[in-house]
Amino acid sequence: MIEISDLRKEFALSSQQRKELNTKDSIATAVDDVSFKCKPGRVFSLLGPNGAGKTTTLRMISTIFKPTSGSIKIAGIDAIKNPKEARKKIGFLTGSTGLYARLTPNEIIKYFADLHGVSNDKFEERKEHLYTLLDMHDFQGKRIGKLSTGMKQKVSICRTMIHDPEVVVFDEPTSGLDVITAENIIKLIRGCKEQGKTVLFSSHIMSEVDLLCDDMAIIHKGKLLFEGTMDDFKNQMQAENLTAEFIRFVNATKNQ
Amino acid sequence: MIFKIFKKELKDTLRDKRTLIMMLIIPTLVFPVIMSVFLSVSDSFLENTETKEVKIGYIGNKDNYLINHLDHLPEIYGEKRLFVYTDSVKLKKDIRNDTIQMGVYIDSQFDKYLSNKRPAKVKVFYNATDVGMEGRAKAYLKTIEEIALQERYLDLKLDASELMPIKTEYSNVASGKEMIGELAGGILPYIFIAFGFLGCMYPAIDLFTGEKERGTIETLLTTPVERWQILFGKMGVVVLSGLVASSAALLGLFLSIEVLDLVENEELLSMIHGILSLKFLLTLFLLLLPLTLFIAGIMIPIAVYAKSFKEAQSIITPLNILIILPAMVGFFPGIELSVITACIPVVNIVLATKELISGTLDHSLLGLSFTVMMMIAVIAVFISYKQFDKETNVVI
Known about the structure:
Chain A is α/β, with parallel strands linked by helices. Chain A has a single domain (2-255), classed as Rossmann fold. Chain A has 10 helices and 10 strands. In chain A, strands 6-7-8-3-9-10 form a 6-stranded mixed sheet, with helices on both faces. In chain A, strands 2-1-4-5 form a 4-stranded antiparallel sheet, covered by helices on one side. In chain A, helix 4 (105-115) packs parallel to helix 6. The radius of gyration of chain A is 19 Å and the shape is globular. A 4-stranded mixed sheet of chain B has the order 2-1-3-4, sandwiched between helices. Chain B has 2 domains: 2-34 and 177-394, no CATH class; 52-163, abc type-2 transporter like domain (abc type-2 transporter like fold, 3-Layer(aba) Sandwich), CATH 3.40.1710. Chain B has helices spanning 2-14, 17-51, 65-71, 88-96, 110-115, 133-155, 176-184, 187-214, 217-221, 227-259, 266-275, 278-305, 309-327, 347-358, 363-389, 391-394, and strands at residues 54-59, 80-84, 102-106, 122-126. Classes of the chains: A alpha/beta, B mainly alpha. The A-B interface holds A 11, 59, 62-66, 84-85, 87-88, 90, 92-94, 96-103, 107, 111-112, 114-117, 159-160 and B 1, 4-5, 8, 11-12, 15-16, 214-216, 218-226, 391-392, 394-395.
């Protein structure tokens, strides 16, 4: 379970940033009082155009950023007061995530298992399960730098799941990937849902959202525009398809 | 957990060819290469200066006392050929364009003055940029002057020793170690600092800016590890790389002396053996540790702040000068480790290393230098911690 309430994140602007953004404000609000709930066994999608505040929200959830105000609960743990405990429950994967090019998949997976405090027995069991699932045995000893994008993506997935997290956070996980490689992510998200994990993923691709998610929220300029189930969203649609409705939603706030 | 991060970062660093070259290969080769080149160049230069045939132009009578003796000086003084000149302007011009290397203008009354037991005048021309020529000219003239002096003593029936009222003997009380320390002691800490800096530079940029640039830091920050543990694990590798680079420079020095036999002077060799003891090495590393920690501590905030490898490199490279400049203090004679200099970071380590080589290091000043450098290093590490803890710095 992920419970977010009145989440707010402000960044201090340097004089150069003020000049670039053409503003006199000394503070930029990236996330403005956002609240939502992601339930176990369901896939929650955070939707929004570029610069909407999706990544900042996910970074606060995964404790990389500290919120200016509001609260975050990860599997019942207060992530602001106890970030280290909250991180034990989280698996985090982004589309832009890189891997250590000079290490092998085996070395990377072991490193992250160690950082998450996975015991040796559990590690071997999880590794075998994931390697079989993702068909990784053939390239487990090769250096990352020599692997294809698809292989790298599999290593990223394996690294995210090695500690068997209760909550999995994906930040635009398919961005930059071809259809075949993106399919691995789709499978992973479905697998997580079947296992009863809480899945939160951000995207701006409506077809992907339609394919996977049960619940969704739309965020724009840091503000929450919609929160509900996918069915609720479809029921209130005024445009002819999901993408058009998403654009209509965002444009409606621009005109307000 | 710090050790696990350290182990992984070390493995990653050791697989980076660029870091290995800067950390191991270049520092190991620098002493053998510099010493080989310096020795072969100076040997060939010395040989060339001593054996080179010198063309001497002179203005004066061919049967003159001086020219006669100059012509008959033994070969040990080097080969020479004499040419008669009538014009001093042409003589000087030919020295400038290296047609001849030396000119002698003999006063027309030279022989007369000599036989009258009065100082006979001679003018010697040489080009000071033609290294070694001044020495050669002085050696010729001093020898002929000595011959003339002995002849005069004989003529006047004088005992030369009676004309020497004071016989002075100068004796140097400094030990060989102290002499090496004073003359060459400055270069060692300079090289250790320079390579310590280079050794730290690539791992610092790779492990902090590189991780940010490659997008691996974000995942690392979502693991249940405290940020300071990540920082310390990485910093450990940066410091170790700096120390390895300094040690590699020392290894290179050792190889030059013991394996390549580049030092042939037996006396100098035994002095060097006397310096390179276990106690010397331990004290040296005791001094290098806070210095390397300080270097890492000032590089890491920059590496954390920079958004790209290029940006980090462009800020850190000029920083090199800031560290190297105080290290040059070791080259100046007369500046010694005192209570004041022991309180100046970097300078204290350079001077302490210099005195360590000389064997004159005062233990209380060593303690003071170590404490001051350690305090500065702790401040630098604290700044690194603050920068690494700043969320906008860590994630692009």
